Amino acid sequence: MSGAATDRLNLEVTDVVAEARDVVLLELRDPHGHALPPFEPGAHLEIQLGNGLVRHYSLTNDARERERYVVGVGRAVQGRGGSEYVHQQVRRGTRLTVSAPRNHFRLEPSASRSLFIAGGIGITPIASMVQWCDAQQRPWRLVYAARCAQRAAFYESLARHGENVRFHFDDQHGGVLDVAPLLATVEPDEHVYCCGPAPLVAAVKAHAGRIAPQRVHFEYFTAPADAAATPTVGGFTIELRKSARTLVVPPDQSILDVLEANGFALPFSCREGLCRTCETTVCAGEPEHRDYVLSADERRDGKTMMICVSRAASPTLVLDL
Ligand code: FES
């Protein structure tokens, strides 16, 4: 199969389906019919779009399938062009370079039951998780919020699960989902998985206080609205161990900005601390983490950081670059 050893796959779009209003599903297969690298529920692909953008889209099909990947893409009207490109340019027969599946939103295999909270296009990884739970005969329930039924991907297939699924459509309820009463019903052995727009994730975080942090899992699609408001107090110095260079990061630039301005061509995608593409090993110094992907343990260890948003809590950081 093409590219497996290098984490890159050249795949063909074999189907494009309009799943709901402003939501398309892309089916991707190896052009020679080979099996694809396996994935776990919650995983995503990094896809290089033909317009030079790199985007991450969650796998939404049954993780037992080895012959295809299916990703869901919601059109972001105020987005930066990735979803618009997919909706307008990607057709059956388009070839796309994608990463092997990566997972930052894992199901806890030991959890005896799961509560899924999905908002809008956030249903895509959860649709795969639900199929895994069914296959493993693990109890689950889903609350799925969308602006209206027409925008709810997988509405018909999910509705067949009866009481396991509760829909909340803003236009029918006169407002957004109130997560507080829902989180009050979480059982002691239940894990909570939330994926959706930043306000939904923030609401779940705000009301999940009584639940142990290791039982609440999040996947962000966009950075929270208050992210840009985090003050940057001052500059700091980065020492690059492999390149034997020292650079200054001023308050108004990220580490990634400074490295690019100094001739480094480093991988990045979201530039918002969401995707892990720019993850860099920290050799010494104390990072000030501002991302949304590292676990509490990884933050505490301080051995890795997202250089697109995170900064330094010590005067100098030594990076493995
Ligand atoms: S580029 Fe996405 S986390 Fe840095």
Structure summarized in a few sentences:
By secondary structure, the chain is of the alpha/beta class.
Structural overview:
With 321 residues, this protein is of the alpha/beta class. It folds into 3 domains: 4-99, Elongation Factor Tu (Ef-tu), domain 3; 113-220, Rossmann fold (3-Layer(aba) Sandwich); 228-319, Roll (Ubiquitin-like (UB roll)), CATH 3.10.20. 18% of the residues lie in helices and 31% in strands. The chain has 8 helices and 18 strands. The strands form 4 sheets. A 6-stranded antiparallel sheet has the order 4-3-6-1-2-5, covered by helices on one side. The structure holds FE2/S2 (inorganic) cluster. FE2/S2 (inorganic) cluster binds at residues 268-271, 273-278, 291, 306, 308.
Features:
Elongation Factor Tu (Ef-tu), domain 3; alpha/beta; 6-stranded antiparallel β-sheet; binds FE2/S2 (inorganic) cluster; 321 residues; Ubiquitin-like (UB roll); 8 helices; single chain; Rossmann fold; disordered N terminus; 5-stranded parallel β-sheet; 3 domains
Shape: globular
Uncertain segments: 1-5
CATH fold field value of the largest domain:
Rossmann fold
> Radius of gyration over alpha carbons?
20 Å
The end-to-end span amounts to 31 Å
Give the CATH superfamily of the largest domain. Nucleotide-binding domain of ferredoxin-NADP reductase (FNR) module
Structural class, please?
Answer: alpha/beta
Topology diagram in text:
Layout (H helix, E strand, L loop, with lengths): L7 E13 L2 E7 L14 E5 L5 E5 L10 E6 L7 H8 L5 E5 L13 E7 L3 H14 L3 E7 L8 H5 L5 E5 H4 L5 H5 L6 E7 L1 H10 L8 E5 L15 E5 L4 E5 L5 H7 L17 E6 L2 E2 L7 H6 L2 E3 L4 E2 L3 E4 L2
Parallel strand pairs: 7-8, 7-10, 8-9, 10-11, 12-18
Antiparallel strand pairs: 1-2, 1-6, 2-5, 3-4, 3-6, 12-13, 14-16, 14-18, 15-17
The protein binds FE2/S2 (inorganic) cluster (FES).
FE2/S2 (inorganic) cluster binds next to loops.
